[in-house]
Every structure is written in structure tokens, then in C-alpha cells.
Q: What sequence folds into this?
């Protein structure tokens, strides 16, 4: 829903009105402040399943972020089931990738960790028009 502060329809007011409908599951776009965190924790403590986003660098940072917002640690412990983080992974362009020969010392270190020595293959992208286009427009597929 769209918030309208002019008519006193704030994010937290909207959450409060949604609670009156007694939903089983709630999805909250983002927990940004103490008031939203408090309502979210209260909803979770009353048996509702709540999904939300929280801006942190990693999953374990979610605990510290909620506590920094003012949520009591015992409430975080009793209301949160999981924090999940995601990372974007760079992918080498399949059209311009080339194999590189690593330093022999690095190969020896990797082979100590691998079950099949000699199977290390490292690649890098040379850079082509397709790779450049993909960087500029990541929503487009090659």
C-alpha cells in the first residue's frame, strides 16, 4: 500500500490497520525504524508468520540491526526464526572467456584441498561487446 503522511496514513499506521484483519502471514517491505520493528516483532510473537527485509551486510548482522533499532534482545531471540542473506555473484561472459595459467604455487595450494589434483582450470573474461552490453543492461539476457 502507498503511504500518505498528509492524511496520517504512515507505514506504521498501515501495519496497525492490517493487524486488525488478523492475517496468518504478513509481508512487510522493510523494517527501517523502531516503530516498524516493534510492530513486526509483536506480530511475530502472536503467532503470525512475518517476512520482511532488513538492510545489513550479512545474515548475522540482522540481530545487531534490530537491537540497534531499540528492540530488546530477548524479543529478537523469541520472535525471529531465521535471517537469510543473499549475494550477487559475478559471472564470466561465456563468449569471451579465456583460460589463464595460474602461478604454480597457487596450483599446489589448491591441489592440497582438491580430491582430483590437476583438474584446476581458471578463466577470465577478455571483454567483448556482449559482456560490456550485459554490464550496462543486466536485465537483458545474451
A:
Amino acid at each position: 500500500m502507498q503511504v500518505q503522511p498528509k492524511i496520517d496514513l504512515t507505514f506504521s499506521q498501515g501495519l496497525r490497520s492490517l493487524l486488525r484483519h488478523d492475517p496468518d502471514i504478513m509481508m512487510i517491505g522493510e523494517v527501517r525504524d523502531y516503530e516498524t520493528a516493534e510492530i513486526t516483532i509483536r506480530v511475530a510473537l502472536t503467532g503470525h508468520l512475518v517476512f520482511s527485509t532488513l538492510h545489513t551486510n550479512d545474515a548475522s548482522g540482522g540481530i545487531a540491526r534490530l537491537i540497534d533499532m531499540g528492540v530488546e534482545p530477548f524479543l529478537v531471540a523469541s520472535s525471529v526464526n531465521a535471517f537469510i542473506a543473499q549475494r550477487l555473484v559475478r559471472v564470466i561472459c561465456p563468449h569471451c572467456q579465456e583460460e589463464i595459467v595460474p602461478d604454480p604455487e597457487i596450483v599446489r595450494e589448491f591441489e592440497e584441498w582438491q580430491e582430483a589434483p590437476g583438474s584446476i582450470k581458471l578463466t577470465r573474461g577478455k571483454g567483448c561487446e556482449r559482456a560490456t552490453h550485459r554490464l550496462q543492461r543486466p536485465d537483458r539476457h545474451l
